[in-house]
Amino acid sequence: MNKTVKNADEAIKDIQDNATIMLGGFGLCGIPENSITALVKKGVKGLTCISNNAGVDDFGIGLMLQTRQVKKMISSYVGENAEFERQLLSGELEVELIPQGTLATRCMAAGYGMPAIYTPAGVGTEIEIGKEKRKFIVDGEEKEFLMEMAFDADFAIVKAWKGDNHGNLIFRETARNFNPMMAMAGKITIAEVEELVPAGTLDPDHIHTPGIYVHRIFQGSNYEKRIEQKTVRAKG
Fold this sequence. Notes:
single chain; alpha/beta; Glutaconate Coenzyme A-transferase; eight-stranded mixed beta sheet; three-stranded antiparallel beta sheet; 6 helices; 11 strands; globular
């Protein structure tokens, strides 16, 4: 039951080249900073990364883009990363842009054991190319939906505020947007936490992700907790 590992290096030690990895967080909030640093240090290549965004040039997944470790990026928002843009336009990086709700629901489907979902997002656009469409009656009207496959990720790496040594996790605020659903979806889920406590310490009513989904957990350190942009309003 004790799923604690020593540090990020030990947690990601069996991630090999060409793995498919989910990385939690929303923008730069609640991203697994320590695990990303460990992946850069390990130097694994050819990664397919599933994440809401691609970080910025010198932080988050952007660090792995700088070292050319990412082969394919599956995201819904990538607008803050110049290196990402350069690699995309030069053909160095394969990119799959997904509507944010579809990204979230494909994560959920993987966690729930569902092979696919149907969504109206993308119907009538380039997103539908090569995908199965079905018609359903919604509010008395026939509408078209796209079939989207659940993700198939070798690893899910998430970051939580608190966790216990059984893997139970509590997230805070914006970090809850993608971390909990990704924690359910990986074949192996790795959690780094700001505070690691003994089992039985956390209030069961406050737990967002039960430990049954988590395979490894460690206490991280030196979190920067950046934001992508800070908007300054002009006076007057």
